[in-house]
Amino acid sequence: MGRDTIYISPTSTGKGQAFEHLDHLLPDGVIVIIEPLQSLTSEMAERFKDRATYADSTNKSPAHLRSIRDGEYRLVFTTAETATEGDFLDIVLRNDRFRQRAVAFIFDEAHTLDQWGRDFRPKFLQLGQVRRHLSVPVLIMSATLTPEAREACQSTLNLRNPSVIDVGTDRPNLFLRILPMRYPAASFLDILSVMPELWHGVDSAASVEERTRQFPVTLIYINNKDLATSMHRVINEWCVRAGFDDAVDVYHADMSEEHLEVVHSRILTGKTLIAICTDAFGMGADCRPVKRVIQPKLFGSVSAWWQRAGRAGRDFADEAEEICFVEPTHIDPETKKALATTGQLLPIQDPPAPQHLDDLPSLAKDAAVMRAGEKEAPAARKMVDDELLALSAHGLARTACIRQLVLDYLQQPEKELLPTHSEPYSSSRHVPDDRKLRCCTTCNPEPLPDLPYERKPPPPPVIPALPGVMALQKALQVRLEEWRAEQWRTKWKGTNRAGRMGIDAFLSMQAIESVVSNLKTI
């Protein structure tokens, strides 16, 4: 109490309960909480009834702000954009009496400062001025504070010798699967391959109601809202064919609040079996029915990947899974060859025993090697962070435990310093002490999932070799890469429209490789 604090706890362990504890422990006054999503401000305020309110772009009338200023509420939930500018800043934060009433400043889901602050949420980087106005102890909370994210928070919010409460980030009831993409991306057949409920046992004697109860509620995370429409159409057709009507929904930030609330309610009640969503779903939300998360391609960071994975298995009594597919462009040649000839990954090889600590697998070290090998520094953050590429490479080669790589990267404390598995997690039913949980596809290898023959796409047509085509492909590859770099430097970069994707927003290497590889067909 009275000291800046960093609180790290796994997803699903009720970090929001910290608000309740602080409400009881702190002296009379106002607690100001920054939420990363506008939808969370009202949702969190509703939990505390008359003791709390929220202020965001939809709820910041002068009269309402004056009621906040005058201390009518114990907890005030707001966003970085509202807190750092306009009437909230003028009427509330700059008021001497309000500043005297303030007793704590909390930043929930603090990893978003590092993930979003440099790109589309620059106001996160101005939260330091809120801290200066309030001059009260700060609490930041997250399940995935990387060393870089922690440093960004400490610097931005000027944390003074903070206490660190770290109960780890592990989710032991999640089975982590990293799989190669083997079918055309637009067919979505890789997704179908890991949802056998849509094709296996469809003709069994079990009723649709029984199969619906047994269906693991699934979130499919995408980073392209335009993709949601075509994916919804295809997956909905699969569901109808399997007897599941009206079982697929879409959830992203461009949709109305009413629609998002309906989808969330349908997930909680088991009416929605599959939700195609962006990162807008899940943060701070109740998603206990979810038992499976699918990421059809790599995007973002290890921290963001782990956050998405953590939407599944919120009930510790459930065994859940996270499935991530790796596109061919990120798969090494030897693995591609094995997939083409055997349909499976390369056999697991026993790695040589490490002679030193530095010999142990490390995402940070692997990423540093990858960056050192780049011909030119990226102009903006890549769509896929190097650490996530390194994780996927280890996952496909099965050279290291996926879970341990993530926990080491997030700097989880030693096991002896952590609570037992049963302590931080909530369960709806008894969990046996001797329960055996699967870890990941390295520790618990399994054959790659396959589809029934009738669901597989027809083989591609055989195109005869053309004289000189390979030389032409090599020349075209080089020329297109040079043209891409030149266009970025002279035209595209100056438009400031690239955002997080950088040069890939205009022309990706995957697009160039697609043109070159299909030259014979063209």
UniProtKB/TrEMBL annotation:
<dbReference type="GO" id="GO:0003677">
    <property type="term" value="F:DNA binding"/>
</dbReference>
<dbReference type="GO" id="GO:0030894">
    <property type="term" value="C:replisome"/>
</dbReference>
<dbReference type="GO" id="GO:0006310">
    <property type="term" value="P:DNA recombination"/>
</dbReference>
<keyword id="KW-0238">DNA-binding</keyword>
<dbReference type="InterPro" id="IPR001650">
    <property type="entry name" value="Helicase_C-like"/>
</dbReference>
<keyword id="KW-0067">ATP-binding</keyword>
<dbReference type="InterPro" id="IPR011545">
    <property type="entry name" value="DEAD/DEAH_box_helicase_dom"/>
</dbReference>
<dbReference type="GO" id="GO:0006281">
    <property type="term" value="P:DNA repair"/>
</dbReference>
<dbReference type="Pfam" id="PF00270">
    <property type="entry name" value="DEAD"/>
</dbReference>
<dbReference type="GO" id="GO:0043138">
    <property type="term" value="F:3'-5' DNA helicase activity"/>
</dbReference>
<dbReference type="Pfam" id="PF00271">
    <property type="entry name" value="Helicase_C"/>
</dbReference>
<protein>
    <recommendedName>
        <fullName>DNA 3'-5' helicase</fullName>
        <ecNumber>5.6.2.4</ecNumber>
    </recommendedName>
</protein>
<keyword id="KW-0413">Isomerase</keyword>
<dbReference type="InterPro" id="IPR014001">
    <property type="entry name" value="Helicase_ATP-bd"/>
</dbReference>
<feature type="domain" description="Helicase C-terminal">
    <location>
        <begin position="207"/>
        <end position="361"/>
    </location>
</feature>
<dbReference type="GO" id="GO:0005737">
    <property type="term" value="C:cytoplasm"/>
</dbReference>
<keyword id="KW-0547">Nucleotide-binding</keyword>
<dbReference type="InterPro" id="IPR027417">
    <property type="entry name" value="P-loop_NTPase"/>
</dbReference>
<dbReference type="GO" id="GO:0009378">
    <property type="term" value="F:four-way junction helicase activity"/>
</dbReference>
<dbReference type="GO" id="GO:0005524">
    <property type="term" value="F:ATP binding"/>
</dbReference>
<comment type="similarity">
    <text>Belongs to the helicase family. RecQ subfamily.</text>
</comment>
<feature type="domain" description="Helicase ATP-binding">
    <location>
        <begin position="1"/>
        <end position="163"/>
    </location>
</feature>
